[in-house]
Amino acid sequence: MFYLRNAIVFMFLLFLGCSGGPVTPRDAFTGLMEKINSRDYPNFYLALSNKTTKKVETYRSQLHSLNAKQQESIALSYGLSAKKLLSLNSQEMTALIFMSDRSKSSLLHLTKEKIRAVKIHDKRATVETSCGIKLIFVKEGPYWKADLSDL
């Protein structure tokens, strides 16, 4: 009985340790689309490459350096007040940029797309959708993450 209980605990811990993130670009794309569909902002943010999150942080800091008229103009393009735009945290800003129907970089239209092809080159992969749009994924550690820094 002692060994059986320890075996069950070991298998449970092993299962938890193996559920850290997508291990293929295909899994990363599918997970990203699920996060967009469910509006899961925190996990969407975690699914992005370091390069992408740094670009979002740069954009956030640049917004604070603009004058009030420029801030208001940008805020209006997203349907927000300048005060609300400037108060967004990193996850909310990322969602606004990539998950808003008002954004030119929105990924909402991709959520129903099927994967046409996946091309892997070392730690970089391109996932092409059935409509021909290509998204870049990069391997950071053992997991694949979306690199949206060029959008």
H-E order: HHHHHHHEEEE
Low-confidence stretches: 12-17
State the distance separating the first and last CA atoms: 56 Å
SS summary, helix count:
7
Tell me about the largest β-sheet: 4 strands, antiparallel
User: What is the number of beta strands?
Assistant: 4
Class derived from helix and strand content:
alpha+beta
Instruction: State mean pLDDT (0 to 100 scale).
Output: 89
Structure commentary:
- It is a single chain.
- Strand 3 and strand 4 (143-147) form a beta hairpin.
- Residues 12-17 have low confidence and may be disordered.
- The longest helix is centred in the first third of the chain and has 16 residues, at 2-17.
- The protein has one domain.
- It is elongated.
- A 4-stranded antiparallel β-sheet has the order 1-2-3-4.
- The chain is built from 7 helices and 4 strands; from the N terminus they run αααααααββββ.
- The protein has 151 residues and is α+β, with helices and mostly antiparallel strands.
- It has helices at residues 2-17, 25-37, 41-46, 50-65, 68-77, 82-87, 90-99, and strands at residues 115-121, 124-129, 134-140, 143-147.
Descriptive tags:
51% helix, alpha+beta, 151 residues, 7 helices, 4-stranded antiparallel β-sheet, 4 strands
Helix and strand arrangement:
Elements: H1 2-17, H2 25-37, H3 41-46, H4 50-65, H5 68-77, H6 82-87, H7 90-99, E1 115-121, E2 124-129, E3 134-140, E4 143-147
Can you summarize this structure?
Mean pLDDT is 89; it is low at 12-17. The protein has helices at residues 2-17, 25-37, 41-46, 50-65, 68-77, 82-87, 90-99, and strands at residues 115-121, 124-129, 134-140, 143-147.
